[in-house]
Amino acid sequence: MAQGEPMIQSLLRDTTGYFWYLLLAATVGPFQFGFHLAELNAPQDVINCKKKAISTTTVHPNLPQCIQMNTNQFAVVSAIYTLGGLLGALGAGSFCNKYGRLRAMRLTTLFFVVGPLLESLAVNIALLCLGRFISGIGAGAAVVVVPIYISEIAPPKQKGFFGAFTQVMVNFGILVTQLLGYFLSRDNLWRIILATAGGIGAVQLLGLSLVPESPKWLAEHHSPERARSILRRIRGRKANIDDEVKAWNVDSSSQDIYEEESLLSAQPGSHPARTPNAASTSVSIFGALRHPSYRPAVIAVVVVMATQQLTGINSIVMYSVNLLSALLPTTAALLTVIISALNVIITVLCAPLSDILGRKTCILLSIAGMGVNSILLALGIYYSVKILSAIATLLFVAAFAVGLGPIPFILANELVGPEAVGAAQSWALAASWIATFLVSQFFPIINEALGRGRVYYIFAALAALCGAFIAWWVPETRGKNGADEVWGRKESRQRVE
Fold it and tell me: Does the model's pTM come out above 0.85?
């Protein structure tokens, strides 16, 4: 972006309609992550039989109106989604490095179809848990692969802006499911909420049929000319792509014969065949943790991703209706919809901030805002001050959207080289899913045990601890050319299996 050039003008110049289509098709995966994360929030009391409707409105006469559950059982149903997410996150990094970003994204859509189908047809806790677990696998894989894909197709000068679209779509998924919950949390119409995600998954699978593989991944897997052709289509015929191609650090002359033979034998839309040398460019999950060049980055992304959850955002996303219903019995569900809409708007408005202020600065501002508003929310609930509770909740979510929401998803791609980004992203999302499990499983239990909002003092303390560590350990990545410059290393990084 030229100095002083308006953001909109820069985006119009540097992007094409085809790029925006790829961005939309890819980010349906993070949309599903947000959708499933919040799908049980509004209809919780209807699903677990606390609110039984007298009317006979039904999706199917053989499906029960509700599934009897106590608080602990509902916590398990909510948390099982995060265990599936952990499994998906751990496997997605190595899979997308070996077989490509596109194949990984297409595979996630199968989980997004099967999981919601089982959820919507569930007649007992076990089947509901199975559906949530399968949906979680797809979501866990999607939030590993999609940020990598976006980073590899986005214009270099707007990577921070477009990287924020992962969180924008997560928030949009939350908003859509909260809206559906506001209107369908009655009788057994809650099953329509769960089934909707399956239909979206099927549409995404069709949409991905027109999406190409990441040019950067192709270049690193013996198809530099094909990669250049795809990048040219993404950027437009008049765009200068020479600098981006040079940044791949691939000598196309040594691979021309191999690529020609590969393309002649390949089926349309297929990936190029891999050679033994291609495997050597990838770093395994444990290889990244063991190697001294990658270990600091793994620690950084793990702490930042864990902080994203341990500061308490999902206590609002997953349990806000139940949390605020005693204080705001008639408006809790509507406030949740407003919160979700605010989250989308603030995330979009703040998307350019990380390219202006820096990634680290935005994260620290976000953590500080969430910590302060955690205390205010605890006081508001404890002393039954409705207006304070409502404002603190809105500011809490707004602070999250400033930095801690979107930025963690793009850090892995900036803290390590391309050979280790899949491994680093898997570690990051594994930490995120473990932290999400802890919050989703134990928040309702701890909140019930401590009572009256005191649990938010714990979130405030965690914000202070995590913020201090991030300020000390995590480097700024804005404006840095590669991981070596980020970490101040003079020598080129070494590649390990």
Answer: no
